[in-house]
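# step 3/5: fold
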Amino acid sequence: MEVKRASAEGPVISGFSGRGFRVDEGVYEGLLITPERADGWTPPPIAELAEADLAPLLGLDPRPEFLLLGTGKTLVRPPRALIDALGARGIGIEAMDSRAAARAWGVLRAELRWIAGALYPLD
């Protein structure tokens, strides 16, 4: 499947491949993405996801408006401790299944929103 969107600077999620995401010239099963870069990610089980697992995203300057969290094949609520830790930094979290998060990334970046994303593989 191809994901189409208007032009915005930075990495583009152009579709899905197996358990992962096509971003520019690469494929990533787990993905950390900002308006500046995309990196592979080996996430912990969602119930164990903590602030430290998202450190590369939290150093974004300026701070992201919110974190788009793709939780895999289905929506899974992130741990309350993570929501609270990000809230203390002034960063909200929007959780959804990873396919929806990939599509939302394109829409939000086309609007030039300054966000960060952490997407679990598409199990």
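# step 4/5: annotate
The helical segments are 55-58, 80-88, 98-110.
# step 5/5: archive (pending)
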